[in-house]
Write a structure and sequence with these properties.
Layout: E1 4-5, E2 16-22, E3 29-34, E4 38-45, E5 47-52, E6 55-60, E7 64-67, E8 73-76, E9 84-90, H1 92-96, E10 105-107, H2 114-132, H3 137-155, E11 157-159, H4 167-186, H5 193-200, H6 204-215, H7 219-237, H8 242-248, H9 254-265, H10 269-276
Parallel strand pairs: 1-3
Antiparallel strand pairs: 2-9, 3-8, 4-7, 4-9, 5-6, 5-8, 10-11
Helix pairs in contact: 2-3, 5-6
């Protein structure tokens, strides 16, 4: 099975990604992946089918497809001719601010429960506030998201069990996450396949095959994407120059940085920074 880590981009001041989805949108089927954010897909019309961990889920109008932080999940919204939904990707850091340990904790609520209904109501309010963007809407959304956290922490919190994915597949998931976490923590240094093999207790050749088979992309490609995402954040949020960004994000020179950035995002880093400003 191939799976990948999704990098969730959020707006400054809003600890979540919020968007509407549905028929006519580009993406109605997401293969197996994970991200650190908690995912809430509130179905407004039609249905969403999928899997989160070992749970087979079918969410219909008024129900929520939910996945925990770091949980492998996939969704398919092609089962019904018309589908509309609201997605809230809630920042894991918001929960950890209030003492949640997402390596140990998970959140569970039953279909049709009072907790699901309360969360659905907050999701609707959050989406309306985000869509209207009235004065102080960031503050309004921040309050609503913290209301979600309160429900999760008070009424839905449980200790995580490592039984969501069993056997060889579960071990592979753990290994892939270990490899990607190492890359995310050391992207600013030179990282070789041999080094990754040592980290993972594999030969370089075996690690390369294992990573490609598990994620669908090469180790070098994935590492470059991590570095480019970090570079994009620096361009948006700092006044650092191109050379400084390149070296801070692990590129060996400015030329390789510009070429990789242009290939990934369709423009040079300098133009991207100018357009963002």
């Amino acid at each position: 099975m191939s799976y990948y880590r999704e990098y969730v981009e959020t707006e400054r001041g809003i600890p979540a990604k919020i968007y509407y989805g549905g028929s006519g949108m580009d993406q109605l089927r997401y293969p197996m992946h994970w991200h650190s954010h908690l995912e809430f897909d509130l179905v407004l019309e039609g249905c969403i089918c999928g899997k989160a961990g070992s749970r087979e889920i079918r969410a219909e109008a008024g129900e929520i497809f939910f996945s925990n932080s770091g949980e492998l999940h996939e969704t398919d919204a092609t089962a019904s001719p018309v589908m509309r939904s609201i997605t809230v990707l809630l920042s894991d850091q918001l929960l950890t601010e209030y003492g949640a340990d997402l390596e140990r904790d998970c959140f569970v609520f039953e279909k049709g429960s009072s907790q699901e209904k309360e969360l659905a109501d907050i999701i609707r309010k959050t989406a309306r506030a985000y869509q209207k963007k009235e004065d102080y809407y960031e503050l309004e959304i921040s309050v609503l998201l913290r209301q979600m956290c309160l429900i999760l922490l008070r009424e839905c919190r449980m200790e995580k069990e490592d039984t969501a994915i069993r056997g060889v597949e579960y071990k592979n998931v753990k290994k892939v996450k270990k490899a990607i976490t190492y890359m995310e923590e050391h992207y600013d240094t030179p990282i070789t396949v041999s080094q990754m093999g040592d980290v993972m207790s594999m030969t370089p050749a075996y690690f390369s095959r294992f990573f490609k088979n598990s994620t669908g992309e090469t180790f070098h490609r994935h590492l470059t994407r991590i570095r480019l995402n970090q570079a994009r954040t620096m361009l948006e949020q700092t006044e650092a120059g191109m050379t400084e960004v390149a070296f801070a994000c692990g590129f060996p020179n400015i030329k390789s940085f510009i070429e990789a950035f242009k290939k990934e995002f369709g423009c040079t880093p300098a133009k991207y920074k100018k357009d963002k400003k």
